[in-house]
Design a protein that fits this description.
The protein has 144 residues and is α/β, with parallel strands linked by helices. The protein has one domain: Rossmann fold, CATH 3.40.50. Helices cover 44% and strands 21% of the residues. It has six helices and seven strands; from the N terminus they run βββαβααβαβαβα. It has a five-stranded parallel sheet, with helices on both faces. The chain is globular. The termini are close together.
Length: 144
């Protein structure tokens, strides 16, 4: 089983780098996926190396290729339009979707309604510990 991890890049990229706390957040998601026995593909890490922009067409083709190889999409939408595009593509081949959201974040009705198309778990977290435990629970449900 394989999980594609999508999270904002452009909106979090300042002074040619990502904030260390944000990198730790993404690494925590990746670690929980690995601990669950699932192969992770962290798009921000693998495509951008946490520090570089790549050509938009090249990026989108690679995202599509990697998403097709994945069984699960873990999408942290935050303020990202790109992650929302990934969320729009995922239901087509019936990927299972997990959407982690900080307890103060809201998403569009379109994202909330993804369960009409495919198995979708919306998880709300308060801190990194809550994210890890709820993500682990969601991954266990997905594997069943």
């Amino acid at each position: 089983m394989r999980a594609f991890i999508a999270a904002p890049f452009t909106s979090r990229y300042f002074n040619r780098r990502l904030d260390e706390g944000y990198i730790n957040f993404l690494d925590s998601i990746e670690a929980v996926v690995k601990e669950s026995g699932i192969e992770p593909f962290n798009a921000t890490k693998e495509l951008h190396k946490y520090e570089e922009h790549i050509d938009a067409i090249e990026h989108n083709l690679k995202v599509l290729e990697e998403l097709e190889k994945s069984d699960i999409l873990i999408a942290y939408p935050a303020e990202s339009r790109g992650v929302c595009i990934d969320l729009g593509i995922a239901p087509m081949p019936k990927k299972k979707i997990i959407v982690p959201l900080h307890e103060d974040e809201k998403v569009s009705e379109s994202i909330e309604g993804l369960s009409a198309y495919t198995t979708t778990y919306m998880i709300k977290f308060k801190d990194i510990f809550g994210l890890k435990s709820q993500l682990k629970e969601a991954l266990e449900k997905v594997e069943v």
